[in-house]
Amino acid sequence: MSFPFDFMHLLYENVIKNLISFWCGAYKDLHHDGEPYSIDKTVWSAIGEATATSGKTTPASYGPSVPNLTEDGVKLTADMYSFWFQYLGPVFLQKVFVNRTVYQHFVELVRLINKCLQFTIDADDLMHIREGFIQWVKEYERIYYKFETDRLSACPVTIHALLHIADGILFLGPVRRFPFSNLDNQVLAHAQMTQIKNRYNLHDALSLTRKAGRTVNWDYQIPDVSYSQYVLVSPRKANPTIPDSLLTKIAAALVTRFSPVDTAASQDLIPVRTMKQLLSTFAIESWGRLRRLEGGDTMLASELVNLDSDDRRDATFIRYEPLVDERGRSHHGPTQLRLKLQFGRLTHIFLLKVPPTPTLNINNGMSIALAVIEECDKPVQHSSGLDIYFYSKTKSAEVVDITTVKALVGRVRWGNKWAVFDRNGALTQTLFAEDEDSDI
Asked: What pLDDT score does 334 carry?
């Protein structure tokens, strides 16, 4: 075993499950009415409904859809608890507790779990985990145990076990190591399926391999070193019909690309009208998916891939990081470029095959891949500092190079705003990669 206390069962199927039981007033036979951690039943019901709909707007790579956890008889798996606690909980619980301290205590546990799941953990991280859980347990006792003997059942051994997580990591390595029991279960399931196929002659009916006639996704690696981390994936449409308004935006993006970075005056730019004329000489293709290599996501273009099926998970909202000029609309002084964190819906992916074009100083031809994105308007980071942002609406589409596109994000509607949550960062490499068709 990689850990003195199995991390999955300790956190997701014990501590977190028990906290939820406290909040909805169902933890053992303790008195919960009027306690600062108690959530009103009407509010809890609304949280359950929002949870059930969140799967539709969350990519499958983030984990399974979580059902309405307030309904009787609903069974949640560890990965469902994990997803709800790390991404949905911080959104839904922000203003539901009478005492703000309860919410801050919950968020601190989210931070500690995130720290434990980092791809790399150094000595400072380990010290943070050790001291963090000590303080968290002390605050837990104050909020839930309240140092009352008749509430002693609020302190099961799993709460004490949190104090030993740092030692487990120190002596045995990260909590994700040695997944042999999981691998053994997969081998067992495969052996059982093989026996069923052989005994009942169900090789064809139970085959999990791709059958003849099924559509096969194919991809294209752009022959340019700047796109080495990206692959375009079918469906592909040659010579697509592009509205004039979108053509103008594509032309404007190309003007920015081929104009000198230090251009200060608008008269020094290539005219957009000229660029639109040059576009007519380019071979243009529209692609339905963009895959980022080396463990990255597969992102869908909403205007080319069918998104109407009831069980489809939304894999069109992305995080992207374009370079923007800090001068804004001012034309005075040198250009000051910086990366800007943005979110939005990916609507189109265009591949432009540019022939030799002296006007643009292109002698041998080249390929340019562009993404059309409806930007989330003025996203505001969650007050907790977690990778969660709120927005109310999207802006009109903008055109950027695909190298600015970084990853898929999930969303959930809560009140009159959308919350965007981003798993990408220190945790990215600790997640299992989903099949490329899982969002389709």
From this structure: 62
